[in-house]
Amino acid sequence: MNTKVTLAGITLNNPVMTASGTFGSGAEYGGMVDLNKLGAVVTKGVANVPWPGNPTPRIAETYGGMINAIGLQNPGIDVFVERDIPFLKKYDTKIIVNVCGRTTEDYVEVVERLADEPVDMLEINISCPNVKEGGIAFGQDPKAVEAITREVKKYARQPVIMKLSPNVTDITVMAKAAEAGGADVLSLINTLTGMKIDIHKRCFAVANKTGGLSGPAIKPVAVRMVYQVSHAVSVPVIGMGGIMNAEDAIEFMMAGASAVSVGTANFHNPYATEEIAAGIEAYMKKYNIEDINELIGCVD
Question: Residue 103: inside a domain, yes or no?
């Protein structure tokens, strides 16, 4: 039985990976989760310099999910290279580094620093606000999507995954722009913008007022967008958004995802990724599926 999938020439032992920002860089879960059983670990966003993140409170629970406004807090590329890469290299899993920035130059600086590091792929978070364009996210303007993808590709030694924001009118436009810029893989969806108000305190539940909505509540939107994008481009797609169990993961793959990322479920159940990988194998045995690639995009 084959559970391996290939993304831009990189072969994963199985299609299950962590979603950026929900798993740190692996060490936080290392004592509970056997990273050898995951296809890849996608790190928390890494910037060229340390980011303090947003003021607290930064997380609020919602029906079927959560809102976060962490603000991409991270220790910066220097600490990441010195501390996190050596830890992840101990395991038989692929390393995908999520890269964030406020300007194109910020992204390029991190990509250049990673060029000679033993990491397998780069995931570019284009939901970051573009400070040179008035704060609109890179991922909400197709011209900006294509431009930053093309610029990152100039300097990247590893395959480039562009992580798409769902906070757009037509996500296929952004997907095509990323593909035109040279993206090797696309991942989607990032969080939907949401808000929660505490009616007892008469204030916003998170200090930032708005935050990213994730969890099971967004899954139908995510599945629909993965389906649309997988039909709009020729590069592989990584699906995410509310995956809680193996059934959810398989649904994304049938919609067209070549691999899946598990995010919010990690907070609810630290063993979620391992259990989902095992559940996919159990499903394959139940239905006599010899090769997991048979499932990718099998509904049309």
Answer: yes
Q: Could you tell me if residue 255 is inside a domain?
A: yes
Q: Whose structure tokens read 């040179």?
A: 132
Its domain, for residue 140, covers 5-294
Q: For residues 237 and 259, what is the distance between their CA atoms, to the nearest angstrom? A: 7
Contact (CB, 8 A) for 197 and 158? no
Contact 98, 45 (CB under 8 A): yes
Task: Please give the C-alpha separations between residue 291 and each of 65, 93, 258, in angstroms, as whole numbers.
Answer: 33, 20, 12
Q: Quick check: 123 and 149 in contact, CB under 8 A?
A: no
> Annotated catalytic, 128?
yes
CATH of residue 177: 3.20.20.70
pTM for this entry: 0.97
Q: Which residues pair with 262 in a beta bridge?
A: 18
Provide the domain count of the chain: 1
70, 263 Cβ separation under 8 angstroms? no
In-domain check, residue 300: no
pLDDT at 29 over 90: no
Q: Which one is catalytic: 100, 128, 203, 298? A: 128
Q: Check residue 213 and give left, alpha or beta (phi > 0: left; psi -120 to 50: alpha).
A: beta
Q: Are 130 and 138 in contact (CB under 8 A)?
A: yes
What is the per-residue pLDDT for 183? 98
